[in-house]
Amino acid sequence: MVAFNNGASLASCLAALRAAGKGLNLSVTVIDNCSRENIDSIIRNSGISADIVRSEANLGYGGGNNIGIRRALGKTPPPSAILVLNPDVELRSGAISELCRVLQETHCGAVSPQMSDPPGANQETPSRSLWGRRTRSIRSGGRPLTSVDRLPGSCILISTEALKRVGLFDEKYFLYWEEIDLCVRLRRAKYELLIAEDVAAVHHGAGEGCLKRHRAYYMWRNQIYFSFKNYGPFLGFLFVARRVFVADAREVIRYVKQGRSELVLAGLAGLWAGLRGESGPSVSRFALPESSPPGT
What we know:
Elements: E1 2-3, H1 7-20, E2 28-32, H2 39-46, E3 50-54, H3 60-73, E4 81-85, E5 89-91, H4 95-106, E6 110-116, E7 136-140, E8 143-148, E9 155-159, H5 160-166, H6 178-188, E10 193-203, H7 206-209, H8 213-257, H9 261-275
Parallel strand pairs: 1-2, 2-3, 6-10
Antiparallel strand pairs: 4-9, 5-10, 6-9, 7-8, 8-10
């Protein structure tokens, strides 16, 4: 779990962990991603035993999580699975236990719960693939599952075996798209990615996170790097074109309707930075977080 100036969310997340992982031997690691808050006090007050690893710089989503993943993989014996969790996600009782059961029963590479925003409307579960194909619903032992080509970076339980095979998060993204990049590598290694529809979690920062300048900047910038890295020059160009004229165009319309023209400027600045080959943390004024950044 990566913490960056989101103490209130972190406290709620930690408070829910014990019930979410009942019956499991949980080992919790919190990465202090150069936060200004007193992470020690927040963890101590939560009543959860957790290791704290401090970073001297904000390494972003991928870099911060990689610290925790390497720490977990270095244990003897290593855990059978690693949960990547945003501090603004509240897991329901038994959620981690059920996700572990799905991982064991289906032998998939990674699984996520059915995410919802605070009012209860489903979100973050893709109904179509990255290329527009519909997702596939399946059942395993009577459990409803959805087979997808990407999982929400806010909560992913990943098989340790799969991580060792495909590698960790690509830190060139800094924020956004790195979990999709990892999912593409998992799928290419023949691992299935599943949404457990009967396992619930709430992503409290999902709605507000979509209206942040840094989110628009990095989302639009990193789609360029992702496309050409994973699909090559021809398919990469087609993927970027589809993103710009469909997904990005929808975002522009939404931003304008909400009177947030600065988000359009942030997205365009990110797109230009991506075309220029920028990667890692940006010094652009649009890339500076207005508050704690969401995972994805």
